[in-house]
Amino acid sequence: MTSERPLPMLTRRAFSVTLLGAAAVPFAGRAFAQTPSDIRSRIANMSQLHAIMVQRGDDIIVAEAPRGPGLDRVANIKSCSKSIIGLLTGNAIAEGAIPSVNATIGEIAPSIIPSDATPGVEDLTIEDLVTLRAGLEGTSGRNYGAWVNSDNWVSFALRRPMVASPGGRMIYSTGTTHILGAVLTVATRKSLLEQARDVLGRPLGIEIPSWTQDPQGYYFGGNQMAMTPRGMLRIATLMRDQGRFDGDQIIPADWIDQSTQAHTRSPYSGLAYGYGWFLSRSGFVIARGYGGQIIAAHPEKDLAVAITSDPTSPARSGGYFGQLMDLLEGPVLSLA
Q1: How far apart are CA 53 and CA 230, in angstroms?
Q2: How far apart are the first and last CA of the chain?
Q3: Where are the domains of the chain?
Q4: Half-sphere exposure (CA, 13 Å, Cβ side) for 133?
Q5: Which uninterrupted H or E stretch holds 76?
Q6: What is the dihedral of CA 235, 241, 245, 251, to 10 degrees?
Q7: Residue 8: pLDDT above 60?
Q8: Is the dihedral of CA 267, 269, 270, 273 positive or negative?
Q9: Is domain 30-335 classified as CATH 1.10.10.60?
Q10: What is the pLDDT of residues 207-247, one digit of tens each?
């Protein structure tokens, strides 16, 4: 992954999702932690970690905020936003605003394509975008500054050269998710903010404040959204329970199934990747954001997890993010 800077008890829902794919992250020894108090001891020395919440079944068994703004104030979830955009994509398809994942930009939103766009971008599919397999040169990392300082973020991203075949390898690029966000906006005739609040905010009872917009007014598709840790935990339970929350089907179960199929793999972490969600070897479904923001669900073990961290410090796979994965795959998983 490249670097980018810029509630009450729940009703039990028991479903199971079969996850494909493998991760390069090794399992940590589960004997290190068997109780919530062991988790508290483990995070005491993790100076970047702000808050962690773990829900098992109906019960929130860990709710700690040793640093940062706490459990009830919003935090920047960074690229966890990409996973939220993935859920909004599934809703747009379910409502008929988008025919299917095979629909193309040219069919759905030709108005966003600049006259000097890279040849072939009109044929990019929704699936190409939501799996980060558009083939376009990324706007993250060294290209990020030039991209967000451009006068048209969508056009800038659609002018990047093709460096891989669409539908081929994963190219981590927030520009790709931003294109998808613009397509969703055109297709639904609602801003991403409206969609996020309508589809997730109100049904789940979580706060989703306004966030960054590009020069054309499109909300940032893939970065800078904010939620409280409690709100993030509700998203995690939604993923855990096949799109259901408090007895209601919020996101279609078949979209959750498709989202948790391995379509590609991150060249950085080795984690498999579905429709906006990373997939671990043990069965965790993970949204990951810069600095160590995590929304994670383990359907088989009935676990949901939310983690916030210092949004200004890097969290590389070989560093702090690796520590967070060890925490998930070891002590947290042992709570099941």
Answers
A1: 8
A2: 28
A3: 30-335
A4: 22
A5: strand 75-78
A6: 80
A7: no
A8: negative
A9: no
A10: 999 999 999 999 999 999 999 999 999 999 999 999 999 99
